[in-house]
Automatic annotation (TrEMBL):
<keyword id="KW-1133">Transmembrane helix</keyword>
<feature type="transmembrane region" description="Helical">
    <location>
        <begin position="101"/>
        <end position="119"/>
    </location>
</feature>
<dbReference type="InterPro" id="IPR049201">
    <property type="entry name" value="DUF6867"/>
</dbReference>
<feature type="domain" description="DUF6867">
    <location>
        <begin position="49"/>
        <end position="146"/>
    </location>
</feature>
<dbReference type="Pfam" id="PF21741">
    <property type="entry name" value="DUF6867"/>
</dbReference>
<feature type="transmembrane region" description="Helical">
    <location>
        <begin position="71"/>
        <end position="89"/>
    </location>
</feature>
<keyword id="KW-0472">Membrane</keyword>
<protein>
    <recommendedName>
        <fullName>DUF6867 domain-containing protein</fullName>
    </recommendedName>
</protein>
<keyword id="KW-0812">Transmembrane</keyword>
Length: 147
């Protein structure tokens, strides 16, 4: 496990001559903890939780648009905004690049898959349940007109 020197150990009070001196209580102390470690098991778990949170949010976004009888264009617009939010989370939590076209497009494509799944599943349920005399379910994502 890698340890990092405490930055507060270099900050001290100044004496009357303006010369800095180290605080004796902090000399040689090392910081260990959740936010001071390199990528280890804890950081991987946090990254996985952020990714799962993004996927779940995208899925719920698609369902929400379908619940309001919105069209698929609205799903795409909301997913583009969600991609910015996910880029910010990766930047703020893991010091990843915020403005990077490749990672933004990659995030949006993955999020769009989940939001599309949520949208199509909910829209299929709506059409089959609300208009049961007109439509039959063919799969979780599609329906057809009754014969």
């Amino acid at each position: 496990m890698q340890t990092i020197k405490c930055p507060a150990a270099n900050v001290g009070t100044t004496d009357k001559a303006g010369q800095g001196r180290l605080r004796p209580a902090l000399m040689g102390k090392e910081m260990q903890g959740l936010f001071f470690e390199t990528d280890n098991g804890v950081r991987y778990v946090l990254r996985a939780l952020v990714v799962l949170l993004g996927f779940w949010t995208a899925w719920r976004t698609g369902r929400s648009v379908a619940d309001g009888w919105g069209d698929y264009t609205r799903v795409v617009i909301y997913t583009l905004a969600l991609g910015l939010v996910m880029r910010f989370l990766h930047h703020a939590l893991f010091n990843g690049p915020f403005i990077n076209g490749f990672y933004y497009v990659f995030d949006v494509v993955l999020l769009l898959v989940f939001s599309s799944i949520g949208f199509r599943m909910r829209r299929t349920s709506q059409m089959v349940n609300n208009y049961y005399w007109l439509y039959d379910r063919t799969s979780a994502f599609s329906y057809k007109k009754k014969d």
